[in-house]
Amino acid sequence: MGLRILTYNILTGGIGPAQQYRVESILEVITGADPDLVAIQEAYCFAPHERDLLRLFADRLDMTGLLAPGANSHLHVALLARRSLNVELIRTVGAPFRHACLVARIRPRENLGLKIVVTHLDPFQESARLREVERLLEEIDAGEPCLVMGDLNGLSPLDPFEPASVPGLLEQYRRMAPDGSWVVESRALPRLLLGGLIDLGHGPRRADDPAGAPGSGPSASAFDTSPTWPTRGGFPSEGPPIRIDYVLATPAVGDAVTDYRAIRTALTDRASDHYPVLVELDAGRLGHRTDTPT
User: Fold this and answer.
1) Secondary structure (3-state) at 190
2) DSSP per-residue string spanning 16-77
3) For the chain, N or C: smaller number of CB within 10 Å?
4) Domain boundaries, the chain
5) Residue 32, Cβ neighbours under 10 Å: how many?
6) Torsion angle of alpha carbons 107, 7, 46, 43, nearest 10°?
7) At 191, which helix (H) or strand (E)?
8) What percent of the chain has pLDDT over 90?
């Protein structure tokens, strides 16, 4: 059994900026991807007291919808799951998250629970993201099947950056080294990897050696780790393209990944300023590991 996972920052709920209505385009993107599970960030106006877009999305996609209200913003996070997955909400977390964190569980096969964590980390400061990451890691048991997905607004230490490109990064993604050169500022994503998670875009790796060799799953070279923001749709943006949207996992999930890619089409270019990321898992391999850390 295959399990298709989609994470998507839909940019202000699909109804902005300037009241540009993109909801139908976003729904077309999701329908075309045919996911079993959808993590949504910037779920603006998804709450019942707003425009109740969560209900609209759930009805149109024939899915069960869950919402975590934004702690310090109206940019909520949401989770949509096929009804057959029997999704159950564990909790929502506000502070210290600038936006929110949603923790749920699905059952992709009998006698197996898969924890799902959806979040949207601070878009401005690495120090704030680090605080959010420490709280997020409290939800993670490295021995339990778990996915962490969303707009993490940080750079993966596994993504290469040419030294000449670093000065052009947004200020929050670079810092000056003692020798006066610019280096990549990346602490939040490394903390997640050292906390026991795997960047699935780079294939399964040992939790105690996140920069080491892949495990027994498919070659990471077959996966797409190119930038996810911004799209080419003309939305306001600053800085060069970077990968900030991720699906991470505990080792019990890592060897189940069969595909990982961003969806880049003319439709996704105009639907949002982020490309959605689609991951495919072999549900039969969930919970099984062939690499055992020493």
Assistant:
1) helix
2) -STT---HHHHHHHHHHH--SEEEEE--TT-STTTT-HHHHHHHHHTEEEEEE--SSSS--E
3) C
4) 2-285
5) 13
6) 150
7) helix 188-194
8) 78
Nearest 5°: CA angle at 26, between 227 and 243? 10
Find where tokens 């906390």 sit. Answer: 195
Quote the pLDDT of residue 272.
95
Give which of 159, 187, 153, 184 is closest to 273, Cα–Cα: 153
Q: What is the pLDDT of residue 205?
A: 55
Cα separation, 265 vs 190, whole angstroms: 30
Per-residue pLDDT at 289:
53
* CATH code 3.60.10.10 for 2-285: yes
Phi, psi of 147 (to 5 degrees): -115, 140
In whole angstroms, how far apart are CA 46 and each of 56, 78, 83, 267?
9, 8, 19, 22
Q: What's the predicted TM-score (pTM) here?
A: 0.92
Listed as ranges, residues in the chain with pLDDT below 70 are 17-19, 205-222, 288-294
